[in-house]
Amino acid sequence: MINYLYIFPEIIITSALCFIVVLDLFLPSRLKYISYYLIQFSLLFCAYYIYSHSNYLGSNVSELYNTGVFSNIFKIFILLSLTIIFYYTSVFLNYFNIYKTEYFLITIFGLLGMMIMISSENLLLLYLGIELLSLSLYSVIAFNRNSLFSSEAAVKYYILGAISSGFLLFGISLIYGLTGSLLFNEIFIHIASLNISNNIDSVQVIGLLFALIFILISLSFKFGAAPFHMWIPDVYHGSIITTTLLLSTIPKIAVFVIFIKLLAIVFSGLFLFWSDMIIILSVLSILIGNIIAISQTNIKRMLAYSTIANIGFILLGLSVGSVIAYKAAMFYTLTYVITTIAVFGLLSQLVYKSKPVENISDLGGLNSSNPFLAFLLMVILLSYIGIPPLLGFHAKLFIIQSLVESNNIPLSIFAVLMTVIGSFYYLRVIKVIYFDELKDELLITSKLYFTGTYVIGLMLLGLFPDILGQLSQYSISNLFNT
Amino acid sequence: MIPMSHYLIVSSILFSISLAGIFLNRKNIIIMLMSLELMFLSINFNFIIFGNYLNDLTGQIFVFFILTVVAAESAIGLAIIVVLYRNKQSINVQDIARLKG
């Protein structure tokens, strides 16, 4: 007996999507805001539904589709982040007169893909979720169709994204051939029955490793880890800033969930092999991200490289393989997403010479024209660096703590050193804001009430890190019990 | 009876040809799209072989999903290329180098 009520959150989103697509056609352009509010309402309603029915959703025992606590927490987090992102997007698009409801609708297709990715317990569903997400991202990047940069970025992302899904499929096909199943559970049981340590040279183990490498390549491409990071700076630079905001935040959460599910559960029998691969990925990401970011003058490119470095830290947490480390990695991911929404959201509200801000020098002297805004930006950047009372400090602390606890001292020293190097380029932005000459062309597109509240919330989360800590503790322990 | 390894070798060769086609191609984006198509077909080949070998329908069903998704993907790809062509009047691979730094 199939019970469709378990996928009710997805059904809410899909039906809202179908309804709004049709409704929007009949709305005159001055009433387009109605569909925007409907979209926001359906996102919030879906989050509320998941929250209020979490016990019921948790009773799902399906082998295909997991709606347990772990998935629900991530889904609610994604839905709430997306409402904030949509708020900034609508302000931005309205200001530049390129408002189109389709932008939001296509993004919601991506949201649906992410919800499927998070819940999937089957490689076929995983593939379909990833594709739904990437197809909508390709179109969202090409949204600004009169801009050469935008379409170039879209072509690059399209070609590389298609190659990476090809790699994912090749890996899946090998796993299917070797284990005879696509279900996570059965693959896990098959790997556990192999007795890896005694027959490392057998065809089965080598084939599984081969498949694992293909899948890891594809996932680290989607994540943006270092040898596969080439698209990140170009795409972040080329697309409009709210698309950058979208790209750099919620897809990373979904990919993180896939990473943790595949590595920590399905392939936990192959820990010996994948932990080294993940360490290489993370060390390269942190190195490349932090060092190349120093030479960037474009703020979106700089933040793109800082993204790569942050991804490196998340992977560093995953490489340890203990429950505490997974908890730290999840804490870091949530922190990274919250901080990134703040920084890109704030930047999307700044206009320099009637264009969105592009270069770091555009921000010069922000303090003398708008001290409150300068203060908000400073708080966010200090949180990125990891200055103690702020959220970023706890995230980095947990990661390094878990490294030390697993006796991986060289890597933890490396992480600390790289944090110091990384602080340079954030501090340079703060220096430009506070000590450079004033550029009076800088305008703000909307009032700062929302951003101000958001950043104060960020500071409060930093003062009480237990809120996010308990959340990650709760969801990770639930992941391993089920 | 042809052993299964021969089929797998064929599909791997096809996969490598398509990868080489994407990375060595310096002319036209359309050729890249063709190589991508070849890549997905080689993967389909893999799935069909494994499905046949395991006497399991899942692999063959997977192929249908891949075919539809790839069709949608190449439609979006062509649309993006049309947008690029309108902005640039060219779809030469070497011309796409504005975003560097």
How would you characterize the overall build of this protein?
The complex is a heterodimer of chains A (482) and B (101). Chain A is mainly α and 482 residues long. Chain A has one domain (4-481). Chain A is 76% helix and 2% strand. Chain A has helices at 8-26, 33-52, 54-58, 69-95, 101-119, 123-141, 148-179, 184-192, 203-223, 231-238, 241-266, 271-293, 299-320, 323-348, 366-369, 371-385, 391-405, 409-435, 449-463, 466-481; strands spanning 350-352, 355-356, 442-444. In chain A, strand 1 (350-352) and strand 2 (355-356) form a beta hairpin. Chain A is globular. The two termini of chain A are 21 Å apart. The mean pLDDT of chain A is 90. Helix content of chain B is 77%, strand content 0%. Chain B has helices at residues 4-24, 29-54, 58-88. In chain B, helix 1 (4-24) runs antiparallel to helix 2 and helix 2 (29-54) runs antiparallel to helix 3. Chain B starts with a helix and ends in a 13-residue tail after the last helix. Chain A binds chain B through residues 124, 127-128, 131, 135, 138-139, 142, 145-149, 151-156, 158-159, 162-163, 165-166, 169-170, 172-174, 176-177, 180-182, 233-234, 237-238, 296, 298, 301, and chain B through 15, 18-19, 22, 29, 32, 36, 39-40, 43, 46-47, 49-50, 53-54, 56, 58-59, 61-62, 65-66, 69, 72-73, 76-77, 79-81, 83-84, 86-88, 96, 98-101.
Task: Write the SSE topology.
The complex is a heterodimer of chains A (482) and B (101).
Chain A: H1 8-26, H2 33-52, H3 54-58, H4 69-95, H5 101-119, H6 123-141, H7 148-179, H8 184-192, H9 203-223, H10 231-238, H11 241-266, H12 271-293, H13 299-320, H14 323-348, E1 350-352, E2 355-356, H15 366-369, H16 371-385, H17 391-405, H18 409-435, E3 442-444, H19 449-463, H20 466-481
Antiparallel strand pairs in A: 1-2, 1-3
Chain B: H1 4-24, H2 29-54, H3 58-88
Helix pairs in contact in B: 1-2, 2-3
